[in-house]
Amino acid sequence: MFSEDRFLEACNELKSPIIDEYEFFTESHDVKIYRKYREESGLYEYKIFGLLKGVSPETCRQVYVDLEYRKEWDGYVKELREINEGDKNGVYWQVNFPFPMSNRDYVFMRECREFDIDTRKITVVLGQSQLFASEPELSGVIRVDDFCQSLALESDGDDGTKAFMYYYDNPKGMIPTWLINWGAKTGVPKFLTDMQAACKGYADYLKSKTS
Fold first, then answer.
1. Backbone dihedral angles phi then psi of residue 192, each to the nearest 5 degrees
2. Which residues contact 109 (CB under 8 A, 6 or more apart)?
3. pTM
4. Which branch of life, at top level (predicted)?
5. pLDDT tens for each residue of 23-55
6. What is the Cα–Cα distance from 162 to 194, expressed in whole angstroms?
């Protein structure tokens, strides 16, 4: 689905971050965020570098791609499920937005691959908007059709995970710029903190599903 170069670009960011065209945005809880302005949309794309202490890259990968578990720990999820359409596989994701704004939904392809680079084991997950005929737009929900995300994970050399994330989407609608900026500044660190807690509870979750 994705080119080899897309995966390798994400791998390289872990060792040699490319932030020359980005401005420093914020830092919180072992997370640094940089952003770059997109003239055509008036929005920012983001690069996030962080540490998730006390959880392995393998657990992070499992938690990140486990859609059923995501419903348990991510309070913004309204609906989340896999899409299987012929030889195309993807994800449907509807996000709760605060009243009076409409919910947003995403339909995207996703692919996960692992790499061994100079004795480093790196996991990369890519996601990007994709049309699926079986997933038409819903009344009252705004379809986000310009979405792109990369996630790269590797060991921090101890008992934790070093993570890189690239993120961009255009939520459309009349959302004030200050609200989008606030969401990026607070939401991304909170997401990684919540994900770290979810990783630590994953073993218990799996046990509960088999008991």
1. -70, -35
2. 1, 88, 89, 90, 91, 127, 128, 130
3. 0.92
4. Eukaryota
5. 999 888 788 999 999 998 888 999 999 999 999
6. 16
